[in-house]
Amino acid sequence: MTRLLPPEILNIVFKEIHDEREGRFSNLSSCARVDRTWCTSAIPLLWSDPFETHGSSRECVINIYLAFLNTEELGELRNNGVPIFDLPNHPILNYPSFLKTFNHQMINNAIYSWCECYGVIDDDIILKYVRGAFIKVLCKCDTNLRTLYCSTEFVVEYNLLQSNFHSVIASVNKMYIDLKYIDIKFLSYLSQACQQVNYLEIYFSLFPRTSQDAKIEADSLATLIRYQVQLQRIHIYRCYQYVHLIIDALQHQSGSLREVVFHQVNFQDCGPLHGLATCKYLEHLEIGEGCQNLTEEMCRPLFDASFVDLHVVLYNGINYSTDPFNFFHCKELVEWAEKQCGTNERTIKQHGIPLKCLCTNNVKRPRGIHPHHVLGLRS
After folding, report:
1. Domain map of the chain by residue range?
2. How far is 91 from 225, CA to CA, in rounded Å?
């Protein structure tokens, strides 16, 4: 019976199982034991993000990766104090090649756990060698990542400027960046290595920047945006200065950009939003919680632009007001958003949200309304 299902159908079914987080590993592991065909389809999914698991299995994953080093490379690690034990002999499959998600923090945690498992604690030299070995394995096994979660120290910790890691991340299409501190080499490296990103999520530091540093950082991010071949979605969080540099760069993605989200963004001194207004195919614009200092003058290019099918979501933030215009300080933006979206009373009723609570929302999509999308209460 199992042979009646062609591999392409199995891949679809297993992908659905894999996307169901609850029990997905045990379910897929069972599928991999059915026969060779099922194993061939299930194993790549199981190993696409193996560091998301917890416990001892993460140390086993590190051991399997290290098993792809040759004798000379393993000898170099031993000579530098890295404990090499329990490595499997000649792994059957090229497991590192299946890796699709590189989560900097989770992989760091796995390496820390591996070191602790073998009695190495707080030894930066050992960590450096293990990280380097990990990157070397990805490069030699022709790993081709699709999703990259990284923070500023990523390039330095893994010594990426001295490796061939750019080939591993050249096809990344989802990127999440946490800018803990200023590092221009980090952003420059990503701009040169990753130019196929269609989803970009940026978190600025919680710590204050000097004006000069904030400008340099925003300039570097603008370069990253301009270098993308076809950016479709961008989310920006905690940007308090020079957001206009990033917005201006969006005009280079005007033909592909479909979604723009701002949360905790200070638009003070931003100037007119011309870069955003050029994105005529934009479908979703979200001005979220914590955004402030938007003015009519800034928004005027949006009002004058012609969008094909734009839906706008505005948030009122944590402190609701009886006057929905107080939060944004821009009555015209709210009125424009209402006209852009329209209202659909049937959809509103289906989701149990009173019509009087709706000020601005995306109600045209079948997915309906999420309660936190409501802008403010009207009396």
Report:
1. 1-46
2. 40
